Amino acid sequence: MKRLFAFSLFVLMALGSVAHVGAQESALKLPPYKKLKLKNGVTVLLMEQHEVPIINFGFIIRAGSVADPAGKEGVASMTAGLLRKGTKARTANQISSELDFIGGQLVANATFDYTAGTAEFMKKDIGKGLDLLADVMLNPIFPSDEVAKLQRQRVDGIKAAKDEAQ
Q1: Is 51's pLDDT higher than 50?
Q2: From CA 129, how far away is CA 104, in angstroms rounded?
Q3: Which phi and psi angles does 34 have, rounded to 5°?
Q4: Are 151 and 82 spatial neighbours (Cβ–Cβ below 8 Å)?
Q5: Cα–Cα dist 164/157, whole Å
Q6: For residue 16, what is the domain's CATH number?
Q7: Residues with Cβ within 8 Å of residue 12, at least 6 apart in sequence
Q8: Average pLDDT, integer, range 97-109
Q9: What's the number of domains the chain is made of?
Q10: Pairwise CA distance, residues 87 & 94, whole Å
């Protein structure tokens, strides 16, 4: 898992909104950014906007459903869906409570080519927000009861989709 992060994790960090596009503007105008390469291979793009006191982290991992092993289709989607379901240090309820306390959010989902997510919280809560994000990304435990529950939900969703008239 750590090797995956070392080679495949791209982090986009922005303070405030990333871009302002007005009705009259035809092109997206991004603020200046810095590109850093960490010792572990992670590429970080930093865009700063100091007008709004919100921290927003976006991450992209080159591991989408196309990389699912044969016979284990859906593993990327399940992994993304289970990131907030517990870590070595926190239960799912603790993660939710701590995010609620700081008014933050943390979501992840898998696409065909990659898994992506965002974490957002107030600038004043950067210490707690980064601690939560790092814990969820580096220490997930994927509790078996949560895996089974999400698996049932996904199967029920597929069954419901097949039952709908086209």
Answers
A1: yes
A2: 7
A3: -115, 140
A4: no
A5: 11
A6: 3.30.830.10
A7: 18, 45, 47, 57, 58, 59, 60
A8: 96
A9: 1
A10: 10
Contact between 49 and 31 under an 8 Å Cβ cutoff? The reply is: yes
Which residue has better confidence, 166 or 2? 166
**CA–CA–CA angle 17, 132, 84 (5° rounding):** 95
Question: Which helix (H) or strand (E) covers residue 61, if one does?
Answer: strand 54-61
Q: What is the average pLDDT value for the chain, to the nearest integer?
A: 84
- pTM of the predicted structure, to 2 decimals: 0.74
Domain membership of residue 109 as a residue range: 2-163
Query: Cα–Cα distances in Å, from 95 out to 18, 73, 85, 149?
Result: 26, 27, 8, 18
Tell me the two tokens of residue 140.
């997930």
| Whether 36 contacts 46, CB under 8 Å | yes
28 DSSP 8-state letter: -
